[in-house]
Design brief:
By secondary structure, the protein is mainly α. Helix content is about 45%, strand content about 10%.
Length: about 70
């Protein structure tokens, strides 16, 4: 389940769920799977941008003034 999205509009609706047969407490709603991949890729891209900007700033190729 997502901590960002709300499910108020999904009450009393059936949804597709993927779960582990050996541990049914571990599950994911099928529509959330794509959202999770997007979130992971977005966070990685933001981290790479900060890493590149920080490295370029240390090498004095760009100058950042706060």
């Amino acid at each position: 389940m997502s901590k960002i999205r709300t499910y108020k509009n999904k009450i009393n609706e059936s949804v597709s769920v993927l779960y582990d047969k050996e541990n049914p407490e571990k599950f994911v709603i099928v529509t959330e799977r794509n959202f999770n991949y997007f979130s992971l890729i977005f966070i990685i891209l933001v981290g790479v941008v900060f890493l590149i900007v920080g490295t370029l700033s240390l090498l004095e190729i760009i100058q950042i003034d706060f």
